[in-house]
Fold:
Amino acid sequence: MKIDGKHYRTIWLAADGWSVEVIDQTKLPHKFEIASLKSVEDAAHAIKTMQVRGAPLIGVTAAYGLCMALRDDPSDISLDSEIAFLAEQRPTAVNLRWALDEMRTAVQNLPYDKRVEAAYARAARMADEDVETCRLIGEHGLKIIKEIAAKKPPGEPVNVLTHCNAGWIACVDWGTATAPVYMAHDAGIPMHVWVDETRPRNQGAALTAFELGSHGVPHTIVVDNAGGHLMQHGRVDLVIVGTDRVTANGDVANKIGTYLKALAAKDTGVPFYVALPHTTIDWTLDDGMKIEIEERGKDEVLKMPGRLKDGSVVVVEIAAPGSPAANPAFDVTPSRLVTGLITERGVAPSTREGLSKLYPERA
Ligand code: MRU
Structure:
């Protein structure tokens, strides 16, 4: 997608041909900065501190992190230990594990002196595949938006509500939840997005709004608790969110607060869609309650960064000194609350049967 007229992906190989550059998401929307990752430790740090975030992007970053590790030591011992090291950086998004499994498969049967080249080739293909997958998700989601638009008075926007950031900045390009929105907007369908701010890290206010604004999509930031009210008053036509892991029975883990949006959508009859690539499906689990939920630091709840009038960015405390806090980063929306899954292979009910039909080779 474009920023100030220039096309970017979120991650790319640097001019040296082996290190990696990423858009530093901890600086957005206040500063657009590129971070350089020159080692597996840099890649792990970027994932942990959320310089890169979003399920697909952390997978691709880990893949490149492994490439850099193998440059230093392509042995089997190194392969095992670096995969374990990268996998432990964030536990909930299954794309991280998927990407590392793919990397292992790509190199494990090769002689040591062939591994680095094969690893870089697989990582590059993974990035390209993610772009194409998200584009296809966009095309399938666009059909849903077109159907809704056709039932509205001419010129009235289709109102989408989204939570967190499942946009291009969370993937390599396009995004999952946002891809249908960008395509609809580009096709001339009037669109408007309600952007949940997404406390505590404000991925909605800081990232989704930044993305949509950069692409010219009309949007409004709302506090996380506004969604139910907007749905009750007919101001949301559909919800589209991303996900960090979908279990084989169709339960959906996503950013904390997603479950409450799904409950409100069910109560008000608003369609609730989840957009995802196949890399987000965990075929090993058949119950969302078994998903490990990441607990993050309390400072994310107790402090907030913001920009002052002079442009400087400061972090302020927002609670009484000494107040305790808890920070579960994700929740699970049971499959019964999900209207449909929008994947690169089409739209399906969020059930074991729905997923099996789309991916018969995994059923
Ligand atoms: O903690 P984050 O910001 O990495 O959480 C991201 C989300 O919850 C996204 O909705 C999800 O990863 C899908 S990204 C296409």
Q: What stands out?
A: DSSP finds eleven helices and 18 strands in the chain. The domain at 149-362 is CATH 3.40.50.10470 (Rossmann fold). The two ends are 34 Å apart (CA to CA). The chain has a mean pLDDT of 97.
